[in-house]
Amino acid sequence: MGDMRRFSLQNNQMDDADEPVHNWYRFVLSFPPHLVRHYLHRFGVSEHHCVLDPFCGTGTTLVECKKLGIPSIGIESNPVAWFASQTKVDWRPDPDALSDHAEWIAGKTWAALQASGIADEAFGLLAATNGSRTPTPPELRELPPEQMELLLTNSISPLPLHKTLVLLEHLQADTDSRWRHHELLALARALVESIGNLRFGPEVGVGAVKPDAPVVSSWLERVRCMAQDLRQMRGRDTPVRVHLADARQLLDVLQPQSIDVVFTSPPYPNEKEYTRTTRLESVVLGFIRNRADLKALKRGLIRSNTRGVTSEDDDDGWVAACPRIQALVESIEARRLELGKTSGFERLYGRVTKLYFGGMVRHLSELRHVLRPGARLAYVVGDQASYLRVLIRTGQILAELAQDLGYEVESIDLFRTRLATATRELLREEVVVMHWPGARNAFGGTSMTQSLPNARNGGVMTTQYASIVEHIFSEKYEAGASEVSFTRANIVMAAQALGVELPKNLGDVIYSFRYRTPLPPSVSGTAPSGKAWMIQPAGRSRYRFVLVNADLARIVPDPNLTETKIPDATPGLVSRYALDDEQALLAKVRYNRLIDMFTGAVCYSLQNHLRTTVPGIGQIETDELYVGVDRHGVHYVFPVQAKGSQRKGSQGQASLVQVEQDDAMCASKFPGLLCRPIVAQFIQPDLVALLMFGRTDSGELVLMAEKHYRLTPADQVTPEDLQRYREPLEN
């Protein structure tokens, strides 16, 4: 065991020197910045490395890395926490201009409140001008009913909520995007700290219900603090990216073998409902608008409490064959029966334990693909006794599960101890320190994937698929090869050689690794730097592993690209009933003529869901096919692959295989037209990313253009927006 005695309970507090930027917005239970610095120093991290925090929360790791000049990447599935992290690492705004702009917004808001008879700073209603003792209360604004019902009862009083909504209206009416994110984050912090009625123990709750609170001055004070911090931080341009994504699906947003260091603190298995911690600001600022949004948010979280469990959850399949987890679950269930506990939540304690550790195994399994050999990792985790006082040694269990996946555990360092709410006993909070040696013994001995259960079909099917693919690749791969061919017959022979059950649908083995599941590390680890293996069809019942540019192995919209506002022309009835799937996306693209705007050509939808056979590939399906003509008379064909919400998992993401198939189809069916394959992706329900591909003179398929279109009510496209769009044309 490692020794970290100098990180005592008191050392969990923020140092004064840590306050800048970190204090813009923080979780109550965030780890301190000096803990990040300690491990970055211990690991010898420099500006030549890349640090990942896959559960980045409010960005403590990312901010600390940027202060030290170390490139970093964050993953967060809670949208308000993702927004906070993204804003906290944006140090571009001019601090004086930010302060001036906030003062201007504050003045407008105070004037609007005063005009309606409300005094923000003096609290309550203004004295009536007609001399009467009791002024007439104005009609107070509220959130829509579907949002109000999401709030904790009494988490904010009616008058402060009214004033907050007036301030928010003025912030949103001014579309100068240079300041908006920082000003909204300042409001998020003010809501939690002073405007609302929340209190934080280890769990969020409602404290004293105050009838009124200063809103504008509370917000303005926090903007001024931001401006002061920005004066210290300007000029530091260390790259940082923050992705709104699921930590169990890292390859959706990260490139293979791109990470040198991981420092993070995942959730612990307990009964804390993490979405409640940020519920007030999430709802008031519009990150959660209804129960469907809340449900979608929870789908992207590791299951760590019973309130997040659904019947569709299947991460428990990843630990179905783990004796340590099964014994722990049996202990919890035995204690439940012994105590006669029969509530619905208590019956789920065993299941949520399996889902939690299964989700962490799924995360650690996917993480292997994005780590460089020799990568160092530190996971801050804590023991728990929330489930009927059965002790869960989280750090030790995660260390064992990680070892089964091929990680090497260096130490389990005691960070601090904390008092358990239920038992009043001291529980350990630890840092599990590991390193990833790389995909060693790629084709020798027992493959890691053979002992790794997956969620699909109880964990058995994906394990068999991985074993079969590994066997085929090892039989046919030669060092330095850029292509490895095989047939469906090889799938049968591999299953027989391994002694595993032959899949009923042989094609599903290939489909799984083309669209759903990363290739096993023993395969992906043989790809040279900058390249990645993909499986492509090569004719009827024929396939091949081919090396492709790693940047295009998973097609992900650029999160830092500027949005272009487009007046939403989607019919109201369609918008009301549209889902977040591919069909809804295709409809919005069609109604808003986004293909025309994106390509600069006049385009027409020729056919959707085109199924055809392509020589050398086999049968393919293209979501929609457009033809178009530009101002020079050039005729184009635009095959479109649509991908819905990224929260649906890897199925919601395009791959180079699909783009190349569309390109080959057009070359075969429309040889006289210039082909430009397009990928359309929902980033948010009203934000659409379009990516266009083409071939270079050498025949390489490359990304040619990318644009993000925000579909918005026409009156929200402001004169300032229009002027900004004109500037590139006028300069």
Keywords:
731 residues, alpha/beta, 8-stranded mixed sheet, 7-stranded mixed sheet, disordered N terminus
Short description:
By secondary structure, this protein is an alpha/beta fold. Helix content is 38%, strand content 21%.
SSE layout and pairing:
Elements: H1 19-22, H2 33-43, E1 51-53, H3 60-67, E2 72-76, H4 79-88, H5 95-115, H6 145-148, H7 158-173, H8 177-195, E3 198-200, E4 204-206, H9 216-233, E5 240-244, E6 259-264, H10 274-277, H11 279-284, H12 291-299, H13 323-339, H14 344-347, H15 349-370, E7 371-382, H16 394-404, E8 408-419, E9 426-436, H17 460-476, E10 483-487, H18 488-498, H19 506-516, H20 521-524, E11 531-537, E12 542-549, H21 550-553, E13 554-555, E14 563-567, H22 572-577, H23 582-591, H24 594-599, E15 602-614, E16 618-629, E17 635-643, E18 654-655, H25 656-669, E19 674-675, E20 678-684, E21 687-695, E22 701-712, H26 719-730
Parallel strand pairs: 1-2, 1-6, 2-5, 6-7, 14-22, 17-19, 17-20
Antiparallel strand pairs: 3-4, 7-9, 8-9, 10-12, 11-12, 13-18, 15-16, 16-17, 20-21, 21-22
Helix pairs in contact: 5-7, 5-9, 7-8, 8-9, 13-15, 15-16, 17-18
